[in-house]
Amino acid sequence: MSIFALVLSINLVAGADGLRVRFPKPVQRPPGPGPWPPVVCDPNEKGPHLQKRQQAALQDWSVMFYDHEDVIGSFDRWIPGQWINHSPGAGQGREDAIRRLSVLLTDPSISMTNWTAFAGQGYGFVHFKFSFPSIDTVFAAWHSFRFQGLCFVEHWDGVQRIFGNETNPIAYF
Ligand SMILES: *[C@@H]1O[C@H](CO)[C@@H](O)[C@H](O)[C@H]1NC(C)=O
Ligand SMILES: *[C@@H]1O[C@H](CO)[C@@H](O)[C@H](O)[C@H]1NC(C)=O
């Protein structure tokens, strides 16, 4: 998994004007006060730089979660409190999510690659490839988040299985 972190990849992140712009990771420090990334996000954060900081938060989350599969670290930084979860098999709250994800990701062959992320208007969206080689299954997956301040507080997701026989040669990615 960590090998993927070494791969130079370009990710899509929405600009402040809502246009999609490309820039390489790691993301640069966004404007605003304090160290970056924060040890813990501030759910009461506001101000003129909030959207840029939410974009950078989503980028940091994506590297921690999808590339490094650091469930505890990514949740402690970006999901420290409220967690309203619309994922169909899940319960509510961050402890439920941490427990489920930690169990899921104990399979070392699992990977989350090819992610693109963008944020705007108080929401973030990530599209990625979710691979389970041990059961010969790959999904195209998406996660969506609602921000409160700089923290993620609400979550939606979906998956669609990739069979490899899709009609469209550019199916999903
Ligand atoms: C997906 O990521 C892998 C590296 O993990 C890369 O080799 C491949 O080209 C990527 N595919 C697409 C469609 O971006
Ligand atoms: C692809 O394979 C799956 C699983 O065998 C099958 O259900 C599906 O109908 C196939 N799709 C196409 C477009 O052939």
Q: How many β strands by DSSP?
A: 7
Ranges where pLDDT stays below 50 over 5 or more residues in a row are 1-24
CATH fold label: Nuclear Transport Factor 2, Chain: A
Order of helices and strands: HEEHHEHEEEE
CA radius of gyration: 16 Å
Report mean pLDDT, rounded to a whole number. Answer: 87
Query: What percent of the residues sit in helical stretches (DSSP H or I)?
Result: 10-25%
Structural class: alpha+beta
What percentage of the residues does DSSP assign to strands (E)? 25-35%
Distance between the termini: 19 Å
**Total domain count:** 1
Q: What is the CATH C level class, in words? A: Alpha Beta
Number of H/I helices? 4
Signal peptide: 1-18
Keywords: Signal
What topology emerges from the helices and strands here?
Elements: H1 2-6, E1 10-14, E2 20-24, H2 50-67, H3 71-78, E3 84-85, H4 94-104, E4 111-120, E5 123-132, E6 137-148, E7 151-162
One 2-acetamido-2-deoxy-beta-D-glucopyranose binds at residues 163, 165, 167.
InterPro entries: NTF2-like_dom_sf
Signal peptide: 1-18
Keywords: Signal
